[in-house]
Amino acid sequence: MAVSPPIGMEGSHAAAMRSSYAFVIGGGDSVVEIHHRESGLSYCLVRSSNRTDLSLVSVRGESVCWLHRKQRFPRPQFDVGISQEPFGSISCIDLVRSRYKMTLGEHGAWILQMPLFRVDFFAASPTAGTAKIRVRRENQWELLFDSDSVSPVVLGALATIFRARWTST
Fold first, then answer.
1. What is d(CA 92, CA 97) in angstroms, rounded to the nearest whole number?
2. Could you tell me the sign of the dihedral formed by the alpha carbons of 154, 127, 149, 113, in that order?
């Protein structure tokens, strides 16, 4: 089922985008809900009891990966892992918190640019493709990827960054 591009993402570049996701930041146990527009597949980024760990779980309740906050100030840093083994990291690479680097092992290395006072920005990986991102509302984000399949680990890492930026942690 084809989905029309979000407002402001029309044109030839949007036509090349293949996968569309909606991220909704909320409260309670489910911190970020992630929905694939075409298939309805969903994930939730949930908070653990110690408040520094997050887990990405599928709609069936299966754990996909965990994310542990190592540092909050001045630049947020997170470890990413599966089971007990860390395999990647997320690091803010400037003091304004507008650029992040995600190193996710087999899921690629990504740079996320989030300019201040803008609603459109992007993420890029030399091996995994690009994503065009739009802030729909204060707590809602629209993502368009140029590949048909996007790793849930990449989605969880992006959700962690969006949440950190939204809550200014």
1. 6
2. positive
Note whether 19 and 2 are within 8 A (CB).
no
- Give the per-residue pLDDT at 56: 95
CA distances from 98 to 69, 112, 123 (A): 18, 8, 12
State the CATH number of the domain containing residue 82.
2.40.160.200
- Total domains in the chain come to 1
Q: How do residues 95-125 score in pLDDT, each as one tens digit? A: 888 899 999 988 889 999 988 888 999 999 9
**Number of other residues whose CB lies within 10 A of the CB of residue 134:** 18
